[in-house]
Amino acid sequence: MTNNVKINVHHITRVEGHGNIKVDIRNGELKECKLEIVEAPRFFEAMVRGRPYYEAALITSRICGICSMGHQLASLAASEDAFGIQISAQERLLRRLLNCGEFFESHTLHIYFLAVPDFVGAKSVLPLVATHKDVVVRALKLKRLGHWVGDVIGGRLIHSMATHVKAITKIPTDEQLHEIIAKLKEAKAMLREDVSVLKRLKFPDFERETEYISLYKPGTYAFLAGNIYSSDTGETSYKNYREMTNEYLVDHSTAKRAKHHRDSFMVGALARFNNNHEWLSDDAKQLAEDLGLRAPCYNSYLNTVAQFVELMHVADDAMDAAQKLLNRERQLEDHTFPVHAGTGIGAVEVPRGILYHEYTYNDQGYMEKANCIIPTAQNLNNVENDFRALLPTITHKSQEEITLLLEMMVRAYDPCISCSAHILDVEFVDED
Amino acid sequence: MMQLDLQPKDEKLYLPDPVRIVEIKDFTDKERFFKLEILSGKSLGHQPGQFVQVSVLGIGEAPISISSPPTKDHFFDLCVRAVGNVTNKLHTLKVGDIFHIRGPFGHGFDADIQQRMQGKHLLFIAGGIGYVPLRSLINNVLPEHHRYKKISILYGCRTPKDRMYQDELAEITKMGGNVELFETVDRTDETWKGNVGVITTLVPKVELDPVNTITAICGPPIMYKFVLISLMERNIPKDNIYMSLERRMKCGVGKCGHCQMGGVYVCQSGPVFKYADVEHNEEVF
Amino acid sequence: MSKPKVAFFDFACCEGCQLCAIDLEPEQLLDLVSVVDIVEFREAMSETGDQLDIAFVEGSITRDSDIDRLKKIRERAKLVVALGACSMIAGINALKNFQTKAEYTQAVYPEDPNKYETTTAKAIGEIIQVDAFIPGCPIDTGEFLRVTKNLVLGKTPDIPTYPVCVECKRNENVCVYEKGIQCLGPVIRAGCNARCPSNGGYCFGCRGLIPEPNINSQQDIMQKYGLTYEKMLEKFKLFLQRNQEIFGDDQ
Amino acid sequence: MTKPEILITTKKSILKGLDQAHSTYRIIALTRNQERVIYDYINSSDEIELEYQPTVLSVKKFFFPQDEIILDYTVEGKVTPRIEAENLVLFGVRPCDLNGIKILDEAFAESHGDPNYLSRREKSIVIGIDCQKVCDKDAFCYKVDSNEAKGGFDIMLYDLEDRYVIQVASAKGQKFLERYFETTPGLPSDLEKALAKKKEGFKGLEPFKNLEKFPEIFEKNKDHPVWEEEGSRCLSCGSCIMVCPTCYCFDVADELALNLKKGQRMRRWDACMLSAFAEVAGGENFRPTAKERLHHRIDRKFNFLMAKHGQAVCVGCGRCVRACLADISPKVIAEKITGK
Ligand SMILES: Cc1cc2nc3c(=O)[nH]c(=O)nc-3n(C[C@H](O)[C@H](O)[C@H](O)COP(=O)(O)OP(=O)(O)OC[C@H]3O[C@@H](n4cnc5c(N)ncnc54)[C@H](O)[C@@H]3O)c2cc1C
Ligand code: SF4
Ligand code: SF4
Ligand code: SF4
After folding, report:
1. Where does C47-156 have alpha helices with state H?
2. What is the pLDDT of residues B188-226, one digit of tens each?
C-alpha cells in the first residue's frame, strides 16, 4: 500500500469493554501506536474502603460480569490471607468447581463468540447461526454449562452470594455432583468435536518472544494458589506481586499499566500454557498436540488455542473435584472466625491471567485499603509491543486488512477492559 | 364425625369456553361494545347483574358484567372499558375473533328480587360504565314496562362524549308512558342541551313513593356515598336499594380472596347487594 | 407484524446483566430471536440509527459526558427499560457517592486524581424517563424474558411490589434474623425468589426498596433481635444510596 | 357409624407399613433438611423425625402448592385444565395443622368446589399424631381450642411410648390401615392413658374464656386501638400469611412461552397483607394501610370465617408469631380485645 497508514478504530468490536486503537505510520516510521481504554472509571478500590470483610467479594465481583467469579476467588483469597485463615479441603474442592464454571463461561464466550467470527469473515456470531448452527449450539451449551456450574455451586450464574470468606454457605447434593460430572463428560466430547473446527481456522503467522508470567505450583496447573513465575526471572512469592507488576498510569487509558523485567509481559492462557503445560491433564495435552500447540509458543494469536486446551483441562480438574466431593461426607462449615487487623494478598489465575487483590483490614474487619490489578491492565503494554512488531511486516496490506489484524490481535488477548461482554462499534477513521 | 365430601365436583371450574365476536361498536375511545356468540351453542343462562370471567389466553382474566338481558339463545353482550392488560387486549380484537369466558358467576338480580319488583316503581341510577350491569336488568324490564308502576332511569356521564348506548337511550326517551330517562353530564360541550351536574342532582327530579320504589345503583366507588345520601333524603327504605359493586377478582368463585369486603365475597354474595345487608360493612364504601 | 427492534446499551457497570439476558439455552435463544429483532450493537451505536422499539439500558451515569448519549437513546426508543440495579437505582456504583470526589479519586489514582472525568453516580431514571425496569444485580434471566415478552405483548411487566420475605417464606427458609444476621428482605422488592437467603446468605438489597417500605418498623425490629440499626444502615449503603427514604436528599 | 373400635400398633409396625406403602404412595413426613426440620417427601422411614418441631410451612403446601399450573393452552385456542394429583400419605400431622386441613377442605369444597385442591385431597391419606404437650412458647393451639383435631385426618395416632393407639376416621383410612399396619385390639383404657398424658401436658393451659363469642366481640371492636398499635409496626411483608395453615388467597397469572405459541395459566399464593392485594383499576386501593390489612386478616381468623366454620380459623400453630419480625401476634391481639 503506502508508507503512510493512519488507523483509528473507535471502539474495537468484540472485546469486553470499550477500547480504541490508534496507529499512525508516516514514511514507514511508526509515530503512534496505542490501545486506548475509554471506559468510565468506577473506583472500586475506593468503594470497598470502610466496608466489612464479608462484603469485599460481593463488591469486587461487580467489577466485571465475566470475571465475576475470578474476582470473588481472588477477593476471598486476599481476605483469608489477611486473617490467616486456612480453608478446608472441602472448600478447596468447591472452589475448583467454581473456577471451572468461570473458565467455561469466559473462555467459550471468547473463543466462539468473539474470536471465531474473525476467521470466517463474520462480523459477529449471529450470522453463524445460519451457516454453522451446530457449532453455535455447542458453543451456547458450553457457555451455559459454565453458568450452570456457577449457579449450582455458587447460587447464581454470576455474582455468587454463597461464597464467603472461610467457607461457602451452600453445599451441593449428590445428584448435583453427579450431574456436574455427566455434563462435563458431555462437554469434553463437544470440545473433541470442535477440534476440527479449530484446526480449520487460519491463525496469522506472527512470533514475538516476550516475558510470560503466571501462577506456579509444581505438580499442578496452578489456578487458585501458588507463587508467581516469570519465564524471564523464575519463581517468586505471590507476596511480591507489586514488583511483578509495577503499575503506572498512561495518558490515554483509564486502566493502569504494568511492566516487570522488560517493558512488557504477557499473562493469560498462553502464559500459563508456556509455564505450566507439563501439568495439564492427559486429555488436555492430547488436545494441544492435535491442535499443534507446542510450548513455548510465541504467537500471541494462539492465546485462543491455549484457551481451548485449558477448557479440556478444567473439565478434567472439575470432574476430579466433583468425584472427590462425592466420595466424602459434605457439610456446611462454620464461616465465622475471630477478626483482627491485617493485610493479605490474593493471587489467582482467572481466564485472562493473574488477578491480584490486596486488602488491608482494621481490627474490626473493615477495609482500610484495597488494590486490585486486573490481567488486562498487565497485558496492555504487551499488546502495543506486539503491534510494533507486527506493523512493519504488514504495511503492504490494505487498510482493512491491517485493521483486522490489529483488532484480531487485541481480541486474541481477550481483553476485559472494564470487564463486560458486548459487541462494539468499529469505525474506520481516515483523518487525511 | 362429619365427613366432608371431597369429591371434585367440577373438574372444569377453571376451564374457559370459547366465544366469537359477532359485532363491535365503539361507544367512546375507551368503551367498546361486543356482541358475542357462545361457540358451544348453549345459552349463557344468566340472571341480570351477573358477570363472566373473560379470558384472553396469554394475557389473563377479568370480570366483566353481562350487559344483555337473559335470553334463550346463545348470544350475549359485554361492554368493556380499556384500563389494563386484558381490557386493552380485548380492544384490539376484531369481529370473528375468539376469546374465552367462564361463568356466569355471582349473585345478580335473582328471581326473588325480580319478584319484589313486580308492580313497583323501578329507579335505576347509573354512573358511567355502571350502566353496563344495570342494562341487563333495564332491557329485561322495559319490554314489560306495563307490569311496573313506573320505570325511571338516571344516567350520568363525565361528558356527552362518554354516553354509551346512545341509540337505545333515544329509544327509551321515545317510549314515554311510564318510562322516563334523565341524563346529566359533569362537563358539557356544544352538542349538549341537557342537564349538567353530578348524578345526585337528578334524584330530586323523580317523583316517587318511597316504600313502593325499588332502586338499583351502579357506578364508580365514590358515587355510592352521595347517591345513597340523596336516596335517604327521599326516605327510600334501605331494604329497597340494590347496588352492584366491583372489586378486584382473580377466580370469580369465592376462593382467591381478592374481592372480599369485610366478611363477604363480592363474587358470591354479590356483585348485587341489598344496601340493608352491607350498610355496616366498613369496607363497602 | 414486523418484529419489534430491541437493542442493548451500557454505561458504567459490569455488563453482567447483558450476560444474564443472553444466558439462554440454544432453543430459548432461537425462540427469542423469532419474537424480537435484536439489533446488532454496531447499528445500535451509530447515533443516526433507526427508531427502536425497546432499548435496554444497563449501567449508571457516572460522568456528564454520558448524559447526551443517554438522551439520544431516549429519543430513538419507544420504550426505555432500565436493565439491572446500576441503571435502575445506580447500584453498586453509588457506593462511591458516600465519599467526596477528592477522597475516591485520590484513593485510586493518587498520582493524578483529576485525570478522569467522574461525578456522582446516578440512576438513568434521574436523567430520562424510564418506561419499565428489571431489577437486580444481576438481573434474573427468567425475569428478563418475562418482561420482554410482556412488553412485546403490550402487557405491563409484572414486577412484584411485595418484599423478599414473601418468597423466602415460600421457600421455607429459616429466617436469618434467627441466626443473628440483619437481612434487608422485609423492605426489598421480591422477584429473585429470595435467592440470597435461600442460598445461605441474607438479602443485601440489590433489587431496591419496595414502594412503601416501613423503615421505622425495620428500625425497631433490630432491638428484638439484639442487633443494631447502624449495622443495618451499613447494609443499606451497598445498593440503596439513591433512596431518599433512607439516605435523604442527594449529597 | 358404630363406635370406633380401639386398636393398638407398635411404632415399628407403623414405620414398616409406611415403607411398604412407598411403592404406591409418595410419603410425606417431618424430616431434617440441612439446618431445618420441614414436612417433605421421604424415601425411607429412617428419615422421619418423630418428635415434633415447629416447621416454617404447614402441610398446606402439598394440597395447595406455592405455585401451580391450572391451564395449558395454545394460541390456536386449545385449552386443557391441568390437575396434578398423586397418591400421598402425610404422616405425623399435628392437631393444629389437621384443623387447618379441615378448614381448607371446607373452604375449597364450598359451592364451586376447587378441582385442583379437592383432587389432591381425595388421593391423600392423612395420618395425624396427637400432641401431648405444647410444642414451643409461640404456639397457642390450646387458646383457640385447637390442640385436638376436629377433622382433617383419616387416621389418628395417640402416643403410648413405643406404641400408638389408633383411631380411624374415614373409609379410605380404614382401607389403608388394614393394608399396611399390623394392629391388635386395644382397650378404652389405652386411649384414656394417652389422653391423660395429654391432659397433664396441657395442664393450666386454657382456651380463651369467651372464644365462642369472638365473632361478636370482634365485630364490636372495629375501632379498638389495638389495630393502630399493632398495624403501625407491620412491614406488610406477608410472612404471616405465607406460613399460615388456614390462609388460602391466591393470584392468577398467564404466562406465554417465549415463542408466544403456547402458554399456561398459573395460580400462586397471594396475601391480603400485601399492599397491592385490593387495588383495582385507576389505582383505587380498598385496603390502603397496613392497619386495615392486619384488621382484615385477623377478622378472617376470628370473625368472618369463624362464624362460617364454627371454629376459630386461627388454629394457634404459632407460625405467624415466629415469622413476624415485628412481633405481631393474633394471640396478643385477641387478648387485648377480648381479655385473657
Ligand atoms: C363484578 C365486576 C363486574 C365488572 N364489569 C365490568 C364491565 O362490565 N365492563 C368493564 O369494562 N369493566 C368491568 N369490571 C372491571 C374490570 O373487571 C376491570 O377493569 C378489569 O379487571 C381490569 O383488568 P385488566 O386486565 O384490563 O387490567 P389489569 O392490567 O389487570 O389492571 C389494571 C388495573 O386494574 C386493577 N384491577 C385488576 N382487577 C380488577 C377488577 N376486578 N376490578 C377493578 N380493577 C381491577 C389492577 O389492580 C390495576 O390497577 C367489572 C369488575 C367486577 C368486579
Ligand atoms: S431471611 Fe430475610 S427475606 Fe427471609 S424472612 Fe427473614 S428477613 Fe425476610
Ligand atoms: S435476596 Fe436480596 S440481594 Fe439477594 S438477589 Fe434477592 S434482592 Fe438481591
Ligand atoms: S394466624 Fe398464625 S397462629 Fe393462627 S393459624 Fe395462622 S399462622 Fe398459625
Report:
1. 67-76, 85-89, 101-108, 141-153
2. 888 888 888 888 888 888 888 888 889 999 998 888 888
